[in-house]
Amino acid sequence: MGLTIYDIAREAGVSASTVSRVINSRPGIRKSTRERVERILRESNFSVSEAARGLVNQTSRMIGILVSDIRNQHHIEGAYMIEQHFMQKGFCSLILNAGESDESKASYIRILASRRVNAAVLVGSAFQNDSVRRAIEAYMPDTPVIFQNGEFSLPNVSSAVADEVHGTAEAFSYLFDSGRRHIAYMNSNDTPSNRKKLDGYLKAAAEHGMEALVAVSEDSPERSAEATAALIAAHPETDAIIYAIDLLAVSGSRAILDMGLRIPDDIALIGTDNSPFSMLSNPRLSTIDTKLRELSTACSEMLEKAIADPQYNEHVVVTPSLVLRETT
Amino acid sequence: MGLTIYDIAREAGVSASTVSRVINSRPGIRKSTRERVERILRESNFSVSEAARGLVNQTSRMIGILVSDIRNQHHIEGAYMIEQHFMQKGFCSLILNAGESDESKASYIRILASRRVNAAVLVGSAFQNDSVRRAIEAYMPDTPVIFQNGEFSLPNVSSAVADEVHGTAEAFSYLFDSGRRHIAYMNSNDTPSNRKKLDGYLKAAAEHGMEALVAVSEDSPERSAEATAALIAAHPETDAIIYAIDLLAVSGSRAILDMGLRIPDDIALIGTDNSPFSMLSNPRLSTIDTKLRELSTACSEMLEKAIADPQYNEHVVVTPSLVLRETT
DNA sequence: GAGAATTTTGAAATCGATTGCAATTTTTTC
DNA sequence: GAAAAAATTGCAATCGATTTCAAAATTCTC
Questions:
Q1: CATH 3.40.50.2300 given to domain B60-162+292-319
Q2: Residues of A in contact with B253 (CB under 8 A)
Q3: pLDDT digits (tens, 9 = 90+) for A154-182
Q4: In the A/B pair of chains, how many CB contacts fall below 8 A?
């Protein structure tokens, strides 16, 4: 089935070395020879085996991108930017859905190591756990790793992280300054990122001398609507809610409207992440912009430097900002 | 840096063949030898080179997934299901963002061919063009290709397609039966899929003896809001709009509300695709469910059969159905 | 405990490219 | 037109695994 350069060589009456040199545009080939080989290459629809090439060149020209859930808009956007950037440079992206558990995430590190990726990108804070850390130390101690929204202090790991503590605290202060006195927090699944957001809320509440009220919802629209309704039923005095995730805020808003309350008059809402649909919602959602684009851009740049220079290593922090729309 | 099986062999005092047999759980190795080799394998964090392995085994154990835009929720969902399914079977997914132009899509076929993927999946109707077709014939004539939402009559290509003509026509009939007499259609970018939807609309309009009114919006919330407002300004008698894409319908609904019209009293809206956020919108969007899940499931199944049997080839059609919510 | 039968193990070829070095061909130079 | 210099080309080794076939070690049989 697959033609090899030997087949091409025979056809062209030259050696495999010559064919290889033509394919890779190496100098020192007579023009007429080059053209003849190129023609045969074209006519026979030859395509080089990247596996064989990778074996001798000791490189796969692949970037491994690990995402805990690619269906998450937030995550895929990060993967997309990196994919786009490196495809142009001739790299392929091995995008893998690394799953829920810590062990499964760690096993994906092994998979990337087996594929000998030139670099790995971890998208999402959920990778910040000990299994993953150990897997990196064991199987990719010398491969550049870029952590989007998390951090390991290993020599081959760089990172770009959002200061989510600050972001949530700022949202709290804004609500407080606009007169809200019963600001609740709707948390989601327990991830390092959500923990930081919660910390920001708790810290801000303490600083303003206010009691904290934290509810939890799974990461689904239905659960959030239920959790929001339950929160308000139990604490009718609530006049503002900060949500750990935009999606939860949007379906929460719907539940609030259905209860006959007004937004933002009775209750103000602030989501987190400035997701694409946060401005499509009705009313349009105010949100904490965690600067996903900046995070991804920073990752692409670091990745590029890290591939060029294995010693390279950097950690950047971006500061979230508040986007005010119709729910505040 | 990278250890090879020869390093392991030396350490264990055996030959590389033995190490290979242990790694691949081949029979005929003395228990004590196997355990010794396994221990060394573990202690040295050895990881096999898939490139070398692929070279001799003539397989990459990779599935290539081509998506025209991975940020599109609709597409990524399809890629996700396939990724999940095959990862368990030890395949990696090379997910590539194949870009806008026909030529760029075709060139990605070449890339997958170079990587010697075991199969390729094309997600989205945009791959249905001649450049891609020729690229498949030239570079992957024997690799199973599964086309999600499109079709080529090539021996190695299978497909799962939604009958979008029918879906849109059904939506039209529903609106007509509920008394609407000025049903407009908001189209989006010119893709094979959107062309079929438009056909369905035109066909249904003709069948009901009604005049067709087609507007076009680029695939962005802002454009759709503008296009919707313009449509209604030019044709105030409009009492229903079918949208080629849910997203456009959602931002369109916002524009309509902003004009002081009521939904569905003054204008009924139906989107297309039953996207995750269509039921989060306010009011909740009625939509034509193009059965994305079924499409993807069918693709996974066909993919599996095609990998097992290169002769395999099938074409399935799924029928969309109407999901009625608050905008009708 | 010798010889046969069976189980384990290893040497060497292979997969499809790339590349250093030597050999060959072509071009220059006088 | 012969020798030197320069430009082309090919041979053979290499990358890191797998696998066939033969050799070596072990177990069985009488």
A1: yes
A2: 282
A3: 999 999 999 999 999 999 999 999 999 99
A4: 125
